[in-house]
Specification:
4 helices; three-stranded antiparallel β-sheet
C-alpha cells in the first residue's frame, strides 16, 4: 500500500465522516488490499475481500463518495479485517 492508499484509508475511517473522498481512490485502495472487483448492472460493482462480499454503486455524475457510502465501505472493511492504524492502537 502506498501513501495515497493510506490517506484514502484514513479518510474512510475519519470521524466525522468526510464528504470529499473520490470513489476512484476508494477502488484503488480496495485493489491494493487485494479485493476482487467486478462490474454489475449499471453503476454497481461487486467487491470480494477476505471472504466478504459487498455491492456498491459508483457515484455519478459527481466523483466524490457520499457519506452514507463511506460509512458502508468502512463497515465492509472492518468486517473484512481491515483497520486503520489508529484503530489498531486501541
Amino acid at each position: 500500500m502506498n501513501k495515497k492508499h493510506e490517506r484514502t484509508l484514513e479518510a474512510i475511517f475519519k470521524l466525522p465522516v468526510q464528504s470529499n473522498v473520490a470513489w476512484k481512490d476508494c477502488e484503488k485502495l480496495l485493489q491494493a488490499l487485494g479485493a476482487e472487483i467486478s462490474e454489475g448492472e449499471g453503476s454497481r460493482i461487486r467487491i470480494f475481500l477476505n471472504n466478504r462480499k459487498a455491492v456498491f454503486h459508483r457515484p455519478h455524475p459527481q466523483k466524490e463518495t457520499d457519506k452514507g457510502a463511506l460509512v458502508s465501505l468502512r463497515k465492509f472493511l472492518e468486517n473484512a479485517g481491515i483497520k486503520h492504524k489508529e484503530q489498531k492502537k486501541l
